[in-house]
Model the fold of this input.
Amino acid sequence: MKHIGLLGVILSIAVCSQGSLIISEIMYNPASSEPAWEWIELYNSGPAAVDLAGYVIDDDNTSSHARANIGAGMIASDGLAVLYNADSVSAADFTAAWGGGLNLIAVSGWSAMGLNNSGDRIGLWSSFSSYSGDHETHTLTVSGLRYGAGGAWPGSEDGTAIYRPNLSADGSAGASWASCRDAAGSFQSLMAGGNVGGEWGSPGVFVGVVPEPAAIALIGVSTLLMLIFRRIWG
Ligand SMILES: [Ca+2]
Ligand SMILES: [Ca+2]
Ligand SMILES: [Ca+2]
Done:
């Protein structure tokens, strides 16, 4: 019985360690200069804070990073972060345009990622060693998705971010995303810090449905697995 409980704990940790970071909003087509004013919002659905120091974020083109491009940054459990192009925009510039109180995380080497306005793939790796050699295939990412700009996807509109109204929905499905333009909770950037102003987004702000806390879901999974193993071995 003791080893069954232990198995549940191990499986919980295994499930918990992946999939807790969710890309919740993407500004891939700013009206301001490209790719300076692109940004990506991340949500942490896991039960613990995540330290992004040493993480790598990239698209899937041939241009790769020579080192980890996130030097520091924490996301609290149930918290958000906004990853911005720190090569071209300072935190003060970003704050001047989009407002204060944001959990801004600086990303370097953004030009090797430049988010295509016609669709692209975004991946997040927890270390440079897992990223190295995987920058085109994205098999070792801890989070990622492929967004589009046609079909079921919100259209690619200058200066308008897209967001996921329901963070539990499949991030690679266009129907899971919506335009921030005139969306409840979204707001417009100011003409400040080098931003042209009037862009639509909700960086650092939840708009929509937050998934069930991972901890509760994990307790459910663990309990189910324990019952199954008890039935088999008991
Ligand atoms: Ca772009
Ligand atoms: Ca790249
Ligand atoms: Ca948002």
User: Anything to note?
Assistant: The chain has four helices and 13 strands. Helices lie at 2-16, 91-98, 128-131, 214-233. The pocket of calcium ion (ligand 2) is lined by residues 58-59, 61, 63-64, 112-113, 135 (CB under 6 Å).
